Amino acid sequence: QVQLVESGGGLVQAGGSLRLSCAASGRIMSLNTMGWYRQAPGKQRELVATVTSGGSTNYADSVKGRFTISRDNAKNTVYLQMNSLKPEDTGVFYCYCNTRTWATLRYDDYWGQGTQVTVSS
Known about the structure:
By secondary structure, the chain is mostly beta strands.
């Protein structure tokens, strides 16, 4: 019902930058919160940043001041600008959205397939 397509991952040296994008499509009635989570090898998935439909943002302490989340409501797209990347930022980044669809008329959580971010030291 809702597809999330991520792009922008890759390999970067420590101190470098990457920008992730995630576009939501499908029978979307309204998009609520969108965001990014990451999963490092051997660890649980954790929140990186979220942004509400009104633009309120929330960040993990580990990325505050380095990452910036934004969204384009007209394009149903969320972005994550990542600066000053560190090796500990390495992991699979998953796009997330909480969305109401025309099919169910209720809000449900949806996830992208993930994009790999590797930061070398």
